Amino acid sequence: MAFSAFQLRFVQLLLVVLGVAFILFQLPSTHKETAPTQEVWGDPGDNFDDIRNETLGVQKVFAINLASRPDKRDNIVLGSSVSNFHVEWIDGVTPDEIDNKSYPYNWNHDQKRTEYAARRAHVNGLQRIVQERLTSAIIMEDDADWDVSLKLQLQSFAHAVRALQSQDTQKIPTQSPYGDDWDILWLGHCGLSCKTDLPFYLTPNDPTIPMPRHFRPLWRDSPIFEGHERPDHSRLVCTASDGVCSMFYAVSYRGAQRILAALSVNPSGLAEEINIGAQFDISLGRMCGNGYLRCFAPFPSITGGFRQAGSKAKSSDINDETGEQAGFSSSGVMYSTMLNINRILKGERTVHATWDDVDVLDVIPGDITMKQGAIYGI
């Protein structure tokens, strides 16, 4: 059957329209979602699995320890071995080892000499990071404790902190699984405050979060964001504006340089701008709040502390405590590595919770899972 001129023209026009539609369908969409997109764990090309290595995703892990406290070194060596990460040592400092001429000009001498000695040990760790040109490192104190699921917790934290550094982190390659634009990751603390004008990240239903009554006994209250309240079983990650206790933190090379400048070299004007003549953790919090450092932190704290049985004097090398302590104890972590060491060494499948008033008393570590969270406040 012959086509009329009109029918032929219609068919030609239809083919052109279909061809254009096909081409447009093949082009990538330029539409962007307004809600944050989350990475799927294990995507090809990501580096979150680096956190499961022997240095927890940074170049080195350091622990500060006095030569007079080999008992605490035993704790960290054994605990890190069953958790499969490697620790190097930074010598603790005693007041007698410090020449009075080495105190910075702005140090508040109303503080204890042991407090400056402790600060100096942290500064020595930062000096080592700068000297060795480490891109990042973790520094812990020798009374730290951590959950048996530490590496999984750190992977979850890395997702959160990378999302806060950029709204498009899944498309930006990073040298570090934690992202590349941070100075301090304040992983172990006794409480913190957040910059509430900046976005925060919530991970729901984290099974490793203790109830608030078991948080470290200083700042137990959750950071407050207007219009948002942290549910008890959700882990919050934010840009930190202050914190207390420096028992476990990661620091980047840039961050180590800046803290070394502030606490020891004292460039002109810096000490006048930030009141940093205080203990290490107090000074660190002030530098985070001032914006001199870019700091991120979880709430509640990921890591906690461990106390051995016996005299309370065993617990602190800064403060003089007296009296007896009843047995071993851990604070801040749901399934303490230190309290479960014997179970782990015996090859038992389950570990026991730090407290008896929790939802799940015994758990198989491999059964602990983390959900993905989301950014709020954007």
From TrEMBL:
One of its GO terms (molecular function) is transferase activity. The chain crosses the membrane at residues 6-25. Keywords: Glycosyltransferase, Membrane, Transferase, Transmembrane, Transmembrane helix. CDD domains: Glyco_transf_25. Belongs to the glycosyltransferase 25 family. This is LPS glycosyltransferase.
